[in-house]
Amino acid sequence: xxxxxxxxxxxxxxxxxxxxxxxxxxxxxxxxxxxxxxxxxxxxxxxxxxxxxxxxxxxxxxxxxxxxxxxxxxxxxxxxxxxxxxxxxxxxxxxxxxxxxxxxxxxxxxxxxxxxxxxxxxxxxxxxxxxxxxxxxxxxxxxxxxxxxxxxxxxxxxxxxxxxxxxxxxxxxxxxxxxxxxxxxxxxxxxxxxxxxxxxxxxxxxxxxxxxxxxxxxxxxxxxxxxxxxxxxxxxxxxxxxxxxxxxxxxxxxxxxxxxxxxxxxxxxxxxxxxxxxxxxxxxxxxxxxxxxxxxxxxxxxxxxxxxxxxxxxxxxxxxxxxxxxxxxxxxxxxxxxxxxxxxxxxxxxxxxxxxxxxxxxxxxxxxxxxxxxxxxxxxxxxxxxxxxxxxxxxxxxxxxxxxxxxxxxxxxxxxxxx
Length: 419
Known about the structure:
By secondary structure, this protein is α+β, with helices and mostly antiparallel strands. The chain has helices at 12-16, 27-37, 39-49, 54-57, 112-127, 186-200, 212-218, 252-259, 293-301, 359-375, 389-403; strands at residues 3-8, 60-67, 71-78, 96-101, 137-148, 151-159, 161-162, 168-169, 181-185, 224-235, 238-246, 265-272, 284-288, 310-315, 346-351, 382-388, 410-416. It is built from eleven helices and 17 strands. A hairpin with a 2-residue loop joins strand 5 (137-148) and strand 6 (151-159).
């Protein structure tokens, strides 16, 4: 893969002319999203595809400046206020722009995701990191039931894999990862149900069976949706799994989950691990809403840090605050034991009585956290959170200012968008 240093910003305009621009009005939004959400990936690209050393990368942040048909341009920039004292001697590191080539040129923005994933997969492999998998999985629904007022648990299963000696293996589904996400194919169930209706409705004449136009009408508003694997384990000859779905009004995902019946299959199209490696040491705070509580619950069960975290739990309804009541944290000091009385996590509940989105919620979370830290002095070292897009965007700078942390230690993900 070609890696070409363009030049410093003073000269990039002339040299960038050799690449083909994508004239799409949505590019600016895509660039902003990647820069806000995927800093670690951009630094990974620079680490693998350029000659910058680890020591040099520790001094800079990165941002995409342009997306071309042939690849992306990534610019290094000062890491933050805390590093400005070293700006003079390291100024040569800043404002360099590197061109990272795609495996194959793209002709439209719709092709960007596939090429970006290929870059990420290659970089993650070189760095020894877990990465996105474009893998189809088929689960069977065993049961579904409410575990809190608005949280539905799907119990799923699939046959175990067998190795060459016949031993059972669960490698197709991760049983010891927190925040492992699957992209569920909602359209699979909508179309399957339409076909079943066709084959079982004896009152329909052949001319009135569901035609292509009618099938288009049964397609869900969203063809797919991400859900976190709440838990998975090996049981006899199969793998069992939980997927917890927050039900909040008339939504494609909620409607899909509530309609599922035992014996039906659900299909996933893509899977990727959550970024929680930075939580292995230090005092952490987890900030979650109903969409990310399953990730936090599994993270607590697999906790690999001697210091218990503070969990800021934001729910619209007080009835969902009970979600963590039965979650037991594994001891970070002894990973083979359940939590002890002196090793437990604390939940700071925030009940809003309204949909949890927007910058106002970010201000509320920051204020509540500040009040808690005033009454319970803690030196917060790491943050992981996952919230609505506008909330996450507004919360990141508030937390960095309040806690005095670097961008890399404040990971606040976007788990959903308020339409």
